[in-house]
Specification:
With 243 residues, the chain is mainly α. 67% of the residues lie in helices and 0% in strands. The protein contains 10 helices and no strands. The longest helix has 34 residues. It starts with a helix and ends in a 17-residue tail after the last helix.
């Protein structure tokens, strides 16, 4: 449950830190460092290059993963709470980047993968995010950018892979409410396309498939209503007992 998830995440993180300590030739020295990065000078050519090569390709990823999917996942994980809307999440991403870019902050956003992993490992309230942010700022001030980057590079990929895999399983499990063959076709088309073609192409393919079904007069869950598709029956032995 929640406590077991927190223990598992801390054990994995401790193993990763042990790997970092073993890989680094010497422990980093502690001190007081400025967390602000120097702001580079950019011209019109740099702006255009960043717009075409970075901002526009990132746009579908940010909108889908960091805004739409995050809002939907929050509703699925916390149905009894008032979760942030798509507009609220988009405003949060925009304001955070606009207000911190002038001090050298790297563009960042929310993400449904991070939310799924944090939930799986036990996080349930906003205080967990506040604690995570304080830890990150403390590391940046105490170690400085260069030692911190070396530590990140030395973090064992195997441990990181386990953490990401657990978050991915939790994220994929949210598709269990998809009903009907049409819904499954759209879901699998998007999931398969994103692995090969990228998020933007997968989004267009999924939208095209949904539009085709709509134009054909097919409801996404009409097979369930007509009896052509039956969800797998739940084993009564696996049902939680009352109380």
């Amino acid at each position: 449950d929640g406590a077991a998830g927190i223990a598992a995440s801390l054990v994995l993180f401790a193993l990763g830190c042990a790997g970092v300590a073993r890989a680094l030739p010497a422990p980093p020295s502690l001190g007081l460092h400025s967390p602000l990065a120097p702001v580079p000078t950019v011209d019109a050519a740099d702006w255009w290059h960043a717009l075409v090569r970075a901002a526009l390709p990132q746009l579908p990823v940010t909108l889908l993963n960091a805004v739409v999917a995050t809002a939907k996942l929050a509703e699925d994980l916390y149905p009894r709470r008032d979760t942030p809307s798509v507009d609220a999440i988009a405003l949060s991403v925009g304001l955070s980047n606009l207000s911190t870019a002038a001090v050298g902050h790297f563009p960042s956003c929310h993400g449904c993968g991070g939310l799924a992993g944090q939930h799986q490992f036990g996080a349930r309230t906003g205080s967990s995010m506040a604690l995570l942010g304080l830890c990150k700022m403390g590391l940046a001030v105490a170690l400085g950018p260069a030692p911190l980057l070396r530590a990140f590079a030395a973090f064992p990929p195997a441990v990181l892979g386990v953490l990401l895999a657990v978050g991915g399983v939790e994220l994929a499990a949210c598709a269990r409410d998809v009903r009907g063959r049409c819904g499954f076709v759209i879901m699998l088309s998007g999931a398969g396309s994103v692995l090969r073609l990228g998020t933007g192409a997968a989004f267009l393919i999924s939208c095209t498939a949904a539009a085709v079904f709509r134009l054909a007069g097919r409801s996404l869950d009409e097979e369930d209503e007509a009896g052509g598709y039956e969800p797998a029956a739940t084993d009564p032995a696996n049902e939680p007992e009352d109380g």
